[in-house]
Amino acid sequence: MTSKYLEYHDHPDIFVPHRYPEQTVDLGEVRMNYATAGEEHNPAVLLIPGQTESWWGYETAMQLLSGRFCVYAVDLRGQGRSTWTPGRYSLDLFGSDLVRFIDRVIARPVVVSGLSSGESSRHGFLPTPHPVRSARRYSKTRLCLHPR
Predict the structure, then answer these.
(1) In angstroms, rounded to a whole number, what is the distance separating the alpha carbons of residues 83 and 18?
(2) Category of 52 on φ-ψ map: left (φ > 0), alpha (ψ -120 to 50) or beta
(3) Cα–Cα distance between 118 and 48 in angstroms, integer?
(4) 3 state SS of 38
(5) Which of 145, 147, 134 is CA-nearest to residue 111?
(6) How far apart are CA 32 and CA 49, in angstroms?
(7) What count of other Cβ atoms lies within 10 Å of the Cβ of residue 102?
(8) pLDDT at 6
(9) pLDDT band (50, 70, 90) for residue 8
(10) Model-wide pTM > 0.70
(11) What angle do CA 65, 69, 71 make, to 5 degrees?
(12) How many angstroms separate the CA atoms of 1 and 20, rounded?
């Protein structure tokens, strides 16, 4: 039995327009969907949704944060418009996807905040040996990643 990965265009009828334009980035195994708000020169913040959630749940927070931060909110694999990968979900995979997202899209120090299981996903990249990242904990729910 071969599993087929699903892309958002395989099920377009379940999506509605949102306040912020959506973009995708190819991370290798998945294409991650995300939205941004705020000015690029502001400090970066990455918002990770909880299980079965999407970046859409952060629309109000993005509006509130966008005056002081450049906000990135993502759909993890299997959520929203990101690639749906049946049988390929784990904290390690979520964490690896997030590391690649930070490298390819944000490419600078970022404060990372996760909601519910998004918090657990954030922990997925803490033990990842990565040559250009060091992690410094600020509190239980925030982490700042600095390129070396």
Answers:
(1) 19
(2) left
(3) 5
(4) coil
(5) 145
(6) 13
(7) 23
(8) 66
(9) low
(10) yes
(11) 75
(12) 38
Cβ atoms of 49 and 81 closer than 8 Å: no
The number of angstroms, rounded, from the C-alpha of 65 to the middle of its chain's C-alpha atoms is 16
Question: What is the C-alpha separation between 28 and 16, in angstroms, rounded?
Answer: 26
146 contacts 134 by C-beta, under 8 angstroms = yes
The token pair at 34 is 């995300």
Q: How many CA atoms lie within 13 A of 66 on its CB side?
A: 15
Convert the pLDDT of each residue in 87-141 to its tens digit: 888 878 888 899 899 999 999 988 888 765 444 444 445 444 443 343 443 333 3
DSSP-assigned letter for residue 84: B
Contact at 8 Å (CB) between 138 and 111? yes
φ/ψ of residue 5, rounded to 5: -75, 140
DSSP state of 77: T
Can you read off the two tokens belonging to residue 148? 């070396």
Provide CB contacts within 8 A for 127, sequence distance 6+: none
Q: Report which secondary-structure segment, H or E, holds 95.
A: helix 91-101
- Spatial neighbors of 93 by CB under 8 A, at least 6 apart, are 77, 124
Q: Phi and psi at residue 24, in whole multiples of 5°? A: -130, 150
